[in-house]
Design a protein that fits this description.
By secondary structure, this protein is mainly α. About 60% of the residues lie in helices and about 5% in strands. The chain has eleven helices and six strands. The chain has a six-stranded antiparallel beta sheet with strand order 4-3-2-1-5-6, with no helix packed on it. Helix 1 packs parallel to helix 4 and helix 7 packs antiparallel against helix 10 (about 445-475). It is elongated and about 180 Å long.
């Protein structure tokens, strides 16, 4: 028993102080880890706030700049930084669960175990002190009885030698001496028994009880030290476990930085701000004459000429109002935004190097078109709002062309959405007409009328912006306009009405391919024409998804197919199917 060598009862206080200091060390280490956890949480929060602060704001210039590779790289860096902050949150969570919580629970157990061991030690010491007191008491009693026996013996001998003492007194003294001797003998026996018992208990105390207690304290202390060591190793492992993910975050930042392409960004700038204006023409020589002030004579495409004409020109002439983008007139306020109408042919000077084109017929056609119907606002523009003229006449020619084409594409997408809704509602109306108990066909008419009106408005908007494209092509600075471009533009302008949707189901149509599967979650009895009965849990093939009318077309085999309520089945569309999604 290593701890028992030279350690006896007087060392209990030292051991108690040592084990208490061990507990205080564990508490101090737990506090250290707790403070580290708080630092990690605070750091992660600050990193997340930093990443969020520099995220591009919606509908702002920063969001527009994301088309540049450097801005996208910075956005990727912010996203990686957000993931990096998440790893510090993981560190804090693991430190809290694997070290703080475990050590707190262990401290409670350690304190209880230490208290129990020292209570056992105190009880053993108290028992030995009690046995020692009993031994000392029996020893003193034995000593006292022996002395009393000696005095009684001496008194008996004195009385026996005295001739003047009666025989009765001598006998009494003799009996008293015998009694004292018997009491001394009994005390001696009692003392001997207590001494034997004490020696046994003392031997057991110092060779069994105390070593056992010290051994338990030693094992407890070793477990405490081992537990602290394990916690320190866990402390390092918690950081090491997140290093691969932190490395991936850093690799992502490096990859984002390497993805920056200066040439691509510069090309984006050129494409974004390309004006389409032509450089000004050569200046003519002015001879000096006596009494005449020299006047600057410039070509039609010069900056000064366009500025001078801008005073007399209508607002449509702005398309050639700024030819040198790096020259700024500090003495004049910026020009007011032009009107939304198309540029007048007379306001656009003809390039002397290009053949003159006749632009009057298409301009007249556009003016007649704009005057024939009241001006209506596109549904998308109403939702989005906007700034600047609706025809983008405030922009340079190249930028105007891009904006007009983007506007036409958006309008066509809106038309397609409205057409899809119209198809779905028409199909639902056909089902109601065949099965009146499922719904009133007339209830669909208001919505169909509203969609038809929206389509008409959108088609009118498309015609308007496509005519703007035609006018822009004819009045473009380079004057290039071919028959092929004219035919393409005219084809775009001509918008045909959408094909009529047959309200009846075609029984002879081609077999539709499967686009997914579905599982019936409720039984459905398809008594009506066009529907199909299904049982709960039955698996079917999906051949046409819900178009917004609440019905999904399914197939059981090659000969059995029909519609079931979408809410009665759980649909799983294939990932490569158009508009694939999973819904219930």
């Amino acid at each position: 028993f290593p701890w028992c060598t030279g350690v006896w009862g007087d060392q209990f206080d030292n051991l108690e102080k040592h084990t208490q200091s061990g507990i205080e060390f564990v508490e101090r280490y737990t506090k250290f880890v707790k403070e580290r956890t708080e630092i990690e949480i605070s750091y992660a929060k600050q990193i997340r706030n930093l990443s969020k602060k520099y995220q591009p704001k919606k509908n702002s210039r920063e969001e527009e700049e994301n088309k540049y590779t450097s801005c996208r790289a910075f956005l990727s860096t912010l996203n990686e930084l957000n993931d990096y902050a998440g790893q510090h949150e993981v560190i804090a969570e693991n430190l809290s669960s694997q070290i703080i919580a475990e050590l707190s629970r262990y401290l409670t157990e350690l304190k209880a175990e230490r208290k129990s061991h020292f209570q056992d030690g105190r009880k053993a010491q108290q028992h030995m002190e009690s046995s020692w007191k009993q031994l000392e008491s029996s020893k003193r009693r034995f000593e006292r009885d022996c002395k009393e026996a000696d005095r009684a013996q001496q008194y008996f001998e004195k009385m026996d030698n005295d001739i003047n003492v009666t025989k009765a007194d001598v006998e009494k003294a003799r009996q008293q001496a015998q009694m004292r001797h018997q009491m001394a003998a009994d005390s001696k026996t009692e003392y001997s028994n207590f001494l034997t018992k004490f020696n046994q208990e003392q031997n057991e105390h110092y060779y069994t009880v105390i070593p056992s207690i010290f051994q338990k304290l030693q094992e407890m202390e070793e477990r405490r030290i081992e537990r602290v060591g394990m916690s320190m190793k866990t402390y390092a492992d918690v950081d090491r476990d997140v290093l691969p993910i932190v490395g991936k975050c850093l690799d992502g930042m490096t990859k984002a930085a390497e993805s920056i392409e200066p040439k691509t960004d510069s090309k984006q700038v050129v494409d974004s701000y390309k004006s389409g204006f032509e450089p000004p023409g050569d200046l003519e020589f002015e001879d000096y004459g006596p009494g005449q002030a020299m006047k600057r004579t410039v070509s039609e495409t010069s900056l000064s000429n366009s500025r001078g004409e801008g005073k007399e020109r209508p607002s449509g002439g702005k398309s050639k109002g700024k030819l040198w983008p790096f020259i700024k007139n500090k003495n004049k306020p910026p020009p007011a935004p032009p009107a939304s109408g198309p540029p007048s042919p007379s306001a656009v000077p003809n390039d002397p190097q290009s053949p003159k084109q006749s632009k009057e017929p298409i301009s007249n056609r556009f003016n007649e078109f704009m005057a024939s119907k009241p001006k209506m606002t596109c549904l998308r523009s109403l939702r989005r709002g906007g700034s600047g003229p609706e025809d983008f006449s405030h922009l340079p020619p190249e930028q105007r062309r891009k904006k007009l084409q983007a506007k036409i594409d958006d309008l066509n997408k809106d038309i397609q959405k409205e057409m899809d809704q119209k198809d779905a509602l028409t199909k639902m109306k056909g089902v109601y007409e065949k099965n009146p108990q499922m719904g009133d066909p007339a209830s669909v008419d208001p919505r169909l009328a509203e969609i038809a009106q929206n389509i008409e408005k959108l088609q009118f908007e498309v015609q308007k912006f496509e005519l703007l494209c035609v006018c822009w092509s004819l009045s473009s600075p380079d004057g290039s306009y071919t028959e092929e471009q004219s035919s393409e533009t005219q084809a775009k302008v001509t918008i045909s009405n959408p094909p009529e949707v047959d309200d009846e189901f075609d029984d002879d149509e081609e077999t539709l391919p499967t686009i997914g599967t579905c599982k019936a979650i409720y039984p459905f009895e398809g008594h009506n024409e066009g529907t199909i009965s299904v049982t709960e849990g039955e698996l079917l093939y999906v051949i046409e998804e819900d178009k917004g009318d609440g019905w999904t077309r399914v197939r059981r085999n090659e000969d059995e197919e029909g519609y079931v309520p979408t809410s009665y089945v759980e649909v799983f569309l294939e990932t490569n199917a158009k508009g694939a999604m999973t819904y219930i």
